[in-house]
Amino acid sequence: MKFLILCSVICFLGFTVQAQELPIMGSLADIGNRSKVYIIADAVHSKAMRKEIEKQKTLKIVSDPKGAEFFIEYKILDQKDGVTGMNLTIETGQVDVYFSNANRKTIAWQESSSNSMKYPSIVLIKRFLKEFKRARSE
């Protein structure tokens, strides 16, 4: 009996600790008037996203994560080479826009996309910027 109680307590504590580490799902409104952004991506996708972000004047890209008010992270979820008759690479990527609040990650926007003609990072960052602009004007 004591063994069952001990196992129950350990399982509960383990679940509680894991639940505290999970990110909070928020919205673009949670970013508010934040403008300093740090980009997390490989060199190719970072350069492509920077180019799109620099076209508008609302956000300022910072070179040090300590100076960032929020983060834009691009990650490749899947990459398939030679899938079509044209031997194109199809990449599936995801952008997470988040900030930390009280040492807990809050995801303000998240979306994924697949594409073979453009980097998904470009498609996704354009969607984010459009929705971000709309959220700020409301």
Keywords:
138 residues, alpha/beta
Instruction: State Rg.
Output: 19 Å
Q: Distance N terminus to C terminus?
A: 58 Å
What fraction of the residues are assigned to beta strands by DSSP?
25-35%
In N-to-C order, the SSE pattern is: HEEHEEEEH
Number of helices: 3
Strand order of the largest sheet: 1-6-5-4-2-3
Mean pLDDT equals 84
Structure write-up:
The protein is α/β, with parallel strands linked by helices. Helix content is 36%, strand content 32%. It has 3 helices and 6 strands, in the order αββαββββα. It has helices at residues 2-21, 43-53, 120-137, and strands at residues 24-25, 36-40, 60-61, 70-80, 90-101, 104-115. It has a 6-stranded mixed beta sheet, covered by helices on one side. A hairpin with a 2-residue loop joins strand 5 and strand 6 (104-115). It starts with a helix and ends with a helix. The mean pLDDT is 84.
Give the SSE map.
Blueprint: H1 2-21, E1 24-25, E2 36-40, H2 43-53, E3 60-61, E4 70-80, E5 90-101, E6 104-115, H3 120-137
Parallel strand pairs: 1-6, 2-3, 2-4
Antiparallel strand pairs: 4-5, 5-6
Helix pairs in contact: 2-3
Brief overview, please?
This protein has helices at 2-21, 43-53, 120-137; strands spanning 24-25, 36-40, 60-61, 70-80, 90-101, 104-115. It is an alpha/beta fold. A hairpin with a 2-residue loop joins strand 5 (90-101) and strand 6.
